[in-house]
Structures are given as structure tokens and as C-alpha cells.
């Protein structure tokens, strides 16, 4: 790991104006995400976790403060294709095959067809879906559809992967399997990952850094650097070291309510 910051937020605030009055989604967020980090954002519903990711992705505009991505504004980073984004739902087009869904951003970006084919092949292998290129989304399980969504986000080989609670709707057994696969993918690619979750065990298992956020307006109440080794079998969740980190996350979530 290096100490090179690829995402940097300074005094970041965002207020949505609604007919019922202002909604303060983020307040004075200071945060750095370094190259190669796996950073999970955890906090209660409505605390600004997803909003922060959307600001980084240039899908929302802050009302105060600054954000840079690879030293650029989010708008410049978007145009430079600096990141891939995985949403809560897989969002695959049912009339396109899995390969066709993964190729879509490459088609839009104008990659040559031969390169599209090679990139699709590589990312399908990365997410363990080799051989499923010709299937349609409805022929795949929910977990496999999410893996295809991750492959689509990886297809143009951005260094940053933003993931908005991609496994939240899946059952625990499938979620555990995808957690293992995602951790393995991260270790192979060493991409920088920002990951939104509501699950304390998921955040602790996956992350090199855990960002704990308070109820709205979203503030960072704790940033926990994980001492766990990079090789993490699921059984690590039963160790004292894992449980100590989980306890600190839980304490941070409780402390966040003091801002109410």
C-alpha cells in the first residue's frame, strides 16, 4: 500500500433543498482514501454514505467544501473514466446477454470490437463467470447478476471502484460467498474500492479502512484502520481481533447519535 491519496474530501457539505425545507445530507466531511485502500462506509440509513459516493462520482454536487479524485474534480474524473460504479441493483438490461451488458460501456466509449471481446473475456474470468457470456440476466441468480454488474464496472479498467451496497438484497450464504470473491478480486487487482454497507461484519471483513458515519447530517465519527491480515478466511470473523474491530465500529455508530 502507498500513502498516495486518490480521493480527498475537505469540509464537504451537501444540503438538498426540498419543498419541506432543507435536508442536510453531509456536514464538514474530511476524508482521504489512499491508492489501493478498500474503504467501507457504514452508518444508519440516511446518514449520507451513498451521497458521499455520488459526490465522488459527480452524480451530486456539494454545497460547500471540495472533493478531488486523482487530483481532479469529480467532473474531470468522470470524463477521464477514473472510476467504475456498482449500484445496489445489478441494473442489467434484460434484452442483452451478459456479454452484451458488459460490452455496453465499451461500445459507448468507442473501443474497437476486438478489444471489447478481450476485455469482456478478462473481466468474466475475474468475477468467475467465464462461460456465461451468452446467457441473459434472467437465466442467472441474483448473486451472479451482481457479479456481472461488477464485471461491467471493471470492463474499462478504472483504478477506482465505487460500490453502493451491492450485496444488501442477497441472502447471507450468497453474501458471504460474494464477500470472499470480492476480497479475492481486490487482492488480485489492487484497485481502490469505496464500499457502502449497513453490515458491521461485512465492513470489518472486507476493509483496510472503515469510515463510521453519524445520522443525518452525515458526519464522520470514526475512521478505523484495520490491523487484520490481507488473507482473510471467513473464519476470521470469530477471532478476538475481528470482534474488537466490530465492537469499535458499533461504539462509533452509538457515538454518532450524540450529534442528534
Roughly what is the average pLDDT, rounded to an integer?
Answer: 92
Task: Classify the oligomer.
Answer: single chain
Structural class: alpha/beta
Annotation field: number of helices: 8
Q: Pick out the low-confidence regions.
A: none
| Rg over CA atoms | 18 Å
The shape is globular
Q: How is the biggest beta sheet arranged?
A: 6 strands, mixed
Query: Roughly what percent helix?
Result: 25-40%
| SSE pattern, N- to C-terminal | EEEHEHEHHHEHEHEEH
Order of adjacent strands in the largest pleated sheet = 5-6-7-3-8-9
Give the termini distance in whole angstroms.
Answer: 36 Å
Measured by DSSP, the beta-strand proportion falls in 25-35%
Number of β-strand runs: 9
Characterise this structure.
The protein has 260 residues and is an alpha/beta fold. The protein is 37% helix and 25% strand. It has eight helices and nine strands. It has helices spanning 49-56, 74-79, 98-109, 113-126, 142-154, 172-189, 200-206, 240-256, and strands at residues 5-18, 21-34, 38-42, 64-69, 83-86, 160-164, 192-197, 209-213, 220-225. It has a six-stranded mixed sheet with strand order 5-6-7-3-8-9, with helices on both faces. Strand 1 (5-18) and strand 2 (21-34) form a beta hairpin. The model has no long low-confidence stretch (mean pLDDT 92).
Task: Give the gist of this structure.
With 260 residues, the protein is an alpha/beta fold. It is 37% helix and 25% strand. The strands form two sheets. Strands 5-6-7-3-8-9 form a six-stranded mixed sheet, with helices on both faces. It has a three-stranded antiparallel sheet with strand order 2-1-4.
Amino acid at each position: 500500500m502507498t500513502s498516495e491519496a486518490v480521493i480527498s474530501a475537505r469540509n464537504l457539505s451537501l444540503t438538498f433543498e426540498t419543498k419541506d425545507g432543507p435536508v442536510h445530507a453531509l456536514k464538514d466531511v474530511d476524508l482521504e482514501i489512499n491508492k489501493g485502500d478498500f474503504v467501507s462506509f457504514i452508518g444508519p440509513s440516511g446518514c449520507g454514505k451513498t451521497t458521499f459516493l455520488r459526490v465522488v462520482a459527480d452524480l451530486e454536487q456539494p454545497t460547500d467544501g471540495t472533493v478531488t479524485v486523482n487530483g481532479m474534480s469529480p467532473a474531470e474524473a468522470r470524463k477521464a473514466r477514473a472510476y467504475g460504479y456498482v449500484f445496489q441493483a445489478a441494473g442489467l438490461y434484460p434484452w442483452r446477454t451478459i456479454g452484451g451488458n458488459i460490452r455496453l460501456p465499451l461500445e459507448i466509449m468507442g473501443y474497437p470490437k476486438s478489444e471489447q471481446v478481450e476485455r469482456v473475456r478478462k473481466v468474466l474470468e475475474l468475477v468467475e463467470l467465464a462461460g456465461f457470456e451468452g446467457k441473459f440476466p434472467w437465466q442467472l441468480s441474483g448473486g451472479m447478476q451482481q457479479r456481472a454488474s461488477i464485471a461491467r464496472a471493471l470492463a474499462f479498467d478504472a483504478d477506482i471502484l465505487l460500490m453502493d451496497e451491492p450485496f444488501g438484497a442477497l441472502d447471507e450464504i450468497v453474501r458471504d460467498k460474494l464477500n470472499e470473491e470480492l476480497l479475492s478480486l481486490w487482492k488480485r487487482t489492487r484497485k481502490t474500492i469505496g464500499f457502502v454497507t449497513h453490515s458491521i461484519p461485512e465492513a470489518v471483513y472486507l476493509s483496510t479502512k472503515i469510515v463510521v458515519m453519524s445520522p443525518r447530517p452525515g458526519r464522520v465519527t470514526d475512521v478505523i484502520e484495520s490491523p487484520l491480515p490481507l488473507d482473510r478466511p471467513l473464519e476470521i470473523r470469530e477471532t478476538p481481533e475481528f470482534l474488537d474491530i466490530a465492537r469499535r465500529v458499533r461504539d462509533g455508530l452509538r457515538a454518532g447519535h450524540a450529534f442528534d
